[in-house]
Specification:
Blueprint: H1 5-16, E1 66-69, E2 72-76, E3 93-97, E4 100-103, H2 109-116, H3 135-149, E5 153-154, H4 158-166, H5 177-180, E6 212-219, E7 238-245, E8 261-265, E9 275-276, E10 280-282
Parallel strand pairs: 6-9
Antiparallel strand pairs: 1-4, 2-3, 4-10, 5-10, 6-7, 7-8
Length: 286
Protein backbone atom coordinates (compact mmCIF):
# COMPACT_ATOMS: atom_id res chain seq x y z
CA UNK A 1 0.00 0.00 0.00
CA UNK A 2 1.37 3.44 -0.91
CA UNK A 3 2.16 5.66 2.04
CA UNK A 4 0.51 9.05 2.17
CA UNK A 5 2.53 12.25 2.49
CA UNK A 6 0.85 12.97 5.83
CA UNK A 7 1.78 9.57 7.25
CA UNK A 8 5.39 9.97 6.18
CA UNK A 9 5.58 13.48 7.62
CA UNK A 10 4.36 12.08 10.97
CA UNK A 11 6.92 9.25 10.88
CA UNK A 12 9.74 11.62 10.14
CA UNK A 13 8.76 13.99 12.93
CA UNK A 14 8.77 11.03 15.33
CA UNK A 15 12.23 10.20 14.03
CA UNK A 16 13.29 13.77 14.71
CA UNK A 17 12.72 13.10 18.39
CA UNK A 18 15.75 10.82 18.38
CA UNK A 19 18.02 13.87 18.28
CA UNK A 20 17.62 16.97 20.40
CA UNK A 21 18.71 20.28 19.00
CA UNK A 22 21.14 21.92 21.37
CA UNK A 23 21.57 25.51 20.33
CA UNK A 24 24.83 27.02 21.46
CA UNK A 25 25.42 30.67 22.31
CA UNK A 26 27.41 32.80 19.93
CA UNK A 27 31.09 33.12 20.65
CA UNK A 28 32.29 36.43 22.01
CA UNK A 29 33.85 38.67 19.41
CA UNK A 30 37.63 38.91 19.70
CA UNK A 31 38.71 42.16 21.29
CA UNK A 32 41.53 44.17 19.74
CA UNK A 33 44.19 45.13 22.27
CA UNK A 34 45.69 48.55 21.56
CA UNK A 35 49.06 49.35 23.04
CA UNK A 36 49.38 52.98 24.21
CA UNK A 37 51.94 55.17 22.48
CA UNK A 38 55.16 56.18 24.26
CA UNK A 39 55.93 59.70 25.35
CA UNK A 40 59.00 61.21 23.67
CA UNK A 41 60.36 62.60 26.97
CA UNK A 42 59.13 62.36 30.53
CA UNK A 43 59.04 66.15 30.81
CA UNK A 44 56.97 66.68 27.66
CA UNK A 45 53.45 67.63 28.76
CA UNK A 46 51.60 66.65 25.58
CA UNK A 47 51.05 62.87 25.10
CA UNK A 48 51.98 61.09 21.93
CA UNK A 49 48.72 59.97 20.24
CA UNK A 50 47.96 56.28 19.67
CA UNK A 51 48.95 54.94 16.31
CA UNK A 52 45.96 54.61 14.00
CA UNK A 53 44.59 51.10 13.60
CA UNK A 54 44.92 50.02 9.99
CA UNK A 55 44.33 46.74 8.17
CA UNK A 56 42.27 45.10 10.87
CA UNK A 57 42.38 41.32 10.54
CA UNK A 58 39.39 40.09 8.55
CA UNK A 59 37.98 36.66 9.07
CA UNK A 60 39.27 34.32 6.39
CA UNK A 61 36.68 32.56 4.24
CA UNK A 62 36.70 28.78 4.67
CA UNK A 63 37.74 26.62 1.75
CA UNK A 64 34.73 24.90 0.21
CA UNK A 65 35.44 22.40 -2.54
CA UNK A 66 33.06 22.82 -5.45
CA UNK A 67 32.29 20.44 -8.33
CA UNK A 68 31.15 21.62 -11.75
CA UNK A 69 27.94 19.84 -12.71
CA UNK A 70 27.50 19.97 -16.49
CA UNK A 71 24.16 21.14 -17.82
CA UNK A 72 21.65 18.71 -19.29
CA UNK A 73 18.12 17.44 -19.04
CA UNK A 74 16.61 14.68 -16.92
CA UNK A 75 13.33 13.22 -15.75
CA UNK A 76 12.58 14.71 -12.33
CA UNK A 77 10.49 12.78 -9.84
CA UNK A 78 9.67 9.08 -9.71
CA UNK A 79 7.35 6.90 -11.78
CA UNK A 80 4.31 5.37 -10.08
CA UNK A 81 5.90 1.97 -10.63
CA UNK A 82 8.86 2.80 -8.36
CA UNK A 83 8.65 0.97 -5.01
CA UNK A 84 7.68 3.38 -2.20
CA UNK A 85 6.63 6.05 -4.74
CA UNK A 86 4.66 8.90 -3.16
CA UNK A 87 2.19 11.13 -4.95
CA UNK A 88 4.20 14.33 -4.33
CA UNK A 89 7.05 12.85 -6.43
CA UNK A 90 4.98 13.09 -9.58
CA UNK A 91 4.15 13.57 -12.24
CA UNK A 92 7.58 12.90 -13.69
CA UNK A 93 8.58 15.75 -15.96
CA UNK A 94 11.58 16.64 -18.06
CA UNK A 95 13.75 19.50 -16.75
CA UNK A 96 16.60 21.27 -18.56
CA UNK A 97 19.29 22.33 -16.07
CA UNK A 98 22.12 24.79 -16.77
CA UNK A 99 25.66 24.07 -15.56
CA UNK A 100 26.41 24.99 -11.94
CA UNK A 101 28.95 24.42 -9.19
CA UNK A 102 27.84 22.55 -6.08
CA UNK A 103 29.60 21.70 -2.84
CA UNK A 104 31.49 18.42 -3.04
CA UNK A 105 30.41 17.82 0.54
CA UNK A 106 27.73 19.08 2.88
CA UNK A 107 28.80 22.26 4.70
CA UNK A 108 30.86 21.17 7.70
CA UNK A 109 30.84 22.51 11.23
CA UNK A 110 34.31 23.99 10.77
CA UNK A 111 33.14 25.87 7.68
CA UNK A 112 29.97 27.04 9.40
CA UNK A 113 31.89 28.28 12.46
CA UNK A 114 34.38 30.16 10.29
CA UNK A 115 31.52 32.15 8.76
CA UNK A 116 28.90 32.32 11.52
CA UNK A 117 31.07 32.17 14.70
CA UNK A 118 28.86 29.57 16.35
CA UNK A 119 27.91 25.91 16.06
CA UNK A 120 24.29 24.81 16.49
CA UNK A 121 25.04 21.11 15.99
CA UNK A 122 24.17 18.31 18.42
CA UNK A 123 26.92 15.94 17.31
CA UNK A 124 30.19 17.88 17.39
CA UNK A 125 33.16 17.59 15.06
CA UNK A 126 34.87 19.87 12.55
CA UNK A 127 34.36 17.42 9.68
CA UNK A 128 30.78 16.52 10.54
CA UNK A 129 28.00 18.21 8.57
CA UNK A 130 26.61 21.22 10.39
CA UNK A 131 23.09 20.41 11.55
CA UNK A 132 20.33 22.03 13.52
CA UNK A 133 20.22 24.77 10.87
CA UNK A 134 17.01 26.47 9.72
CA UNK A 135 16.44 27.50 6.13
CA UNK A 136 16.81 31.16 7.10
CA UNK A 137 20.14 30.44 8.80
CA UNK A 138 21.41 28.52 5.77
CA UNK A 139 20.49 31.51 3.61
CA UNK A 140 22.36 33.83 5.98
CA UNK A 141 25.44 31.62 5.75
CA UNK A 142 25.31 31.95 1.95
CA UNK A 143 24.95 35.72 2.22
CA UNK A 144 27.93 36.11 4.56
CA UNK A 145 30.09 33.69 2.59
CA UNK A 146 29.30 35.66 -0.57
CA UNK A 147 30.45 38.87 1.14
CA UNK A 148 33.67 37.20 2.28
CA UNK A 149 34.57 35.75 -1.11
CA UNK A 150 32.97 37.96 -3.74
CA UNK A 151 31.21 34.92 -5.20
CA UNK A 152 27.43 34.48 -5.16
CA UNK A 153 26.77 31.42 -3.03
CA UNK A 154 23.21 30.18 -2.67
CA UNK A 155 21.13 27.11 -1.89
CA UNK A 156 20.46 24.68 -4.74
CA UNK A 157 17.10 24.62 -6.42
CA UNK A 158 15.20 21.39 -5.93
CA UNK A 159 15.74 20.53 -9.61
CA UNK A 160 19.48 21.20 -9.35
CA UNK A 161 19.69 19.05 -6.25
CA UNK A 162 17.96 16.06 -7.82
CA UNK A 163 19.90 16.43 -11.07
CA UNK A 164 23.19 16.50 -9.14
CA UNK A 165 22.12 13.57 -6.96
CA UNK A 166 21.07 11.38 -9.89
CA UNK A 167 24.27 12.12 -11.82
CA UNK A 168 22.80 10.58 -14.95
CA UNK A 169 21.15 7.60 -13.22
CA UNK A 170 17.45 6.79 -13.32
CA UNK A 171 17.05 4.34 -10.44
CA UNK A 172 15.71 4.95 -6.97
CA UNK A 173 19.08 5.42 -5.24
CA UNK A 174 21.59 6.63 -7.89
CA UNK A 175 23.74 3.62 -7.05
CA UNK A 176 24.44 1.26 -4.13
CA UNK A 177 22.85 2.93 -1.11
CA UNK A 178 24.96 1.02 1.44
CA UNK A 179 28.16 2.07 -0.32
CA UNK A 180 27.12 5.70 -0.83
CA UNK A 181 25.02 6.71 2.18
CA UNK A 182 24.81 6.72 5.97
CA UNK A 183 21.27 5.66 6.87
CA UNK A 184 19.56 3.67 9.60
CA UNK A 185 21.01 0.33 8.49
CA UNK A 186 24.65 1.35 8.81
CA UNK A 187 24.93 4.67 10.68
CA UNK A 188 24.69 3.34 14.26
CA UNK A 189 22.35 6.28 14.91
CA UNK A 190 25.01 8.93 14.60
CA UNK A 191 26.18 11.53 12.12
CA UNK A 192 29.39 10.79 10.24
CA UNK A 193 32.20 12.98 8.84
CA UNK A 194 31.66 14.01 5.25
CA UNK A 195 33.29 12.10 2.42
CA UNK A 196 33.64 8.66 4.02
CA UNK A 197 31.27 6.85 1.65
CA UNK A 198 31.64 6.49 -2.12
CA UNK A 199 30.76 9.52 -4.27
CA UNK A 200 28.17 9.50 -7.03
CA UNK A 201 29.12 9.70 -10.71
CA UNK A 202 29.55 13.50 -10.49
CA UNK A 203 32.02 13.10 -7.60
CA UNK A 204 29.59 14.34 -4.93
CA UNK A 205 29.52 12.80 -1.47
CA UNK A 206 26.65 12.16 0.96
CA UNK A 207 23.90 13.35 -1.36
CA UNK A 208 21.77 10.64 0.26
CA UNK A 209 21.70 10.00 4.00
CA UNK A 210 23.76 11.61 6.79
CA UNK A 211 21.94 14.99 7.01
CA UNK A 212 18.93 16.54 5.29
CA UNK A 213 19.83 19.24 2.77
CA UNK A 214 17.88 22.47 2.33
CA UNK A 215 16.79 23.60 -1.14
CA UNK A 216 15.58 27.03 -2.20
CA UNK A 217 12.06 26.00 -3.27
CA UNK A 218 8.69 26.46 -1.61
CA UNK A 219 6.91 23.17 -0.87
CA UNK A 220 4.28 21.93 -3.33
CA UNK A 221 2.43 18.64 -2.96
CA UNK A 222 3.25 17.60 -6.53
CA UNK A 223 4.95 18.74 -9.73
CA UNK A 224 1.92 19.97 -11.67
CA UNK A 225 2.97 23.39 -12.98
CA UNK A 226 6.60 23.08 -11.82
CA UNK A 227 9.34 24.99 -13.71
CA UNK A 228 11.10 23.02 -16.43
CA UNK A 229 14.25 25.18 -16.63
CA UNK A 230 15.87 24.14 -13.34
CA UNK A 231 14.91 27.34 -11.50
CA UNK A 232 13.53 27.45 -7.97
CA UNK A 233 9.76 27.05 -7.67
CA UNK A 234 8.83 30.03 -5.52
CA UNK A 235 5.26 30.82 -6.59
CA UNK A 236 2.19 29.18 -5.10
CA UNK A 237 2.56 26.24 -2.74
CA UNK A 238 3.08 26.64 0.98
CA UNK A 239 5.48 29.55 1.44
CA UNK A 240 6.18 28.83 5.13
CA UNK A 241 7.66 25.42 4.23
CA UNK A 242 10.88 24.86 2.28
CA UNK A 243 12.19 21.76 0.62
CA UNK A 244 14.51 19.19 2.14
CA UNK A 245 16.20 16.41 0.20
CA UNK A 246 18.36 13.36 0.74
CA UNK A 247 17.19 11.72 3.97
CA UNK A 248 19.33 11.26 7.08
CA UNK A 249 21.29 8.80 9.17
CA UNK A 250 18.14 7.84 11.16
CA UNK A 251 15.91 7.10 8.17
CA UNK A 252 15.10 3.92 6.32
CA UNK A 253 16.09 3.40 2.70
CA UNK A 254 12.72 4.47 1.30
CA UNK A 255 13.23 7.95 2.74
CA UNK A 256 16.70 8.19 1.18
CA UNK A 257 15.52 7.69 -2.39
CA UNK A 258 16.69 10.24 -4.95
CA UNK A 259 13.13 11.41 -5.66
CA UNK A 260 11.93 11.54 -2.04
CA UNK A 261 10.70 14.99 -1.04
CA UNK A 262 10.21 16.42 2.44
CA UNK A 263 9.94 19.84 4.08
CA UNK A 264 10.29 21.79 7.31
CA UNK A 265 9.19 25.26 8.33
CA UNK A 266 11.73 27.74 7.00
CA UNK A 267 12.20 29.57 10.32
CA UNK A 268 12.84 26.59 12.56
CA UNK A 269 9.42 26.05 14.17
CA UNK A 270 9.91 22.31 13.64
CA UNK A 271 12.96 20.80 15.43
CA UNK A 272 15.94 21.20 13.11
CA UNK A 273 18.11 18.33 14.37
CA UNK A 274 20.11 16.67 11.60
CA UNK A 275 19.16 19.28 9.00
CA UNK A 276 22.08 20.72 7.04
CA UNK A 277 22.80 21.90 3.49
CA UNK A 278 25.35 22.34 0.73
CA UNK A 279 26.00 25.42 -1.38
CA UNK A 280 25.81 26.24 -5.08
CA UNK A 281 27.40 28.85 -7.35
CA UNK A 282 25.93 29.43 -10.80
CA UNK A 283 28.33 28.76 -13.68
CA UNK A 284 29.07 31.71 -15.92
CA UNK A 285 27.43 31.57 -19.30
CA UNK A 286 29.72 32.06 -22.30
Amino acid sequence: MKATVLAIFTLLLIGAGLSVLLAQPNRLATQVKIEPGKKSKPATPSPTPHKPIVNRTRRAAPKIEMVLVPGGDFLMGSPESEPDHISNEGPQHRVDVSSFYIGKYEVTQAQWSAVMSDNPSHFRGDDLPVEGVSWEEAKEFCRRLSQMTGKEYRLPTEAEWEYACRAGTTGAYAGDLDAMAWYIENSKYKLHPVGQKLPNKFGLYDMLGNAWEWCEDVYHDGYAGAPTDGSAWLSGGDSIRRMLRGGTYVHQAQFCRTAFRFYFYYDGRVPMSYVGFRVVVSARRS
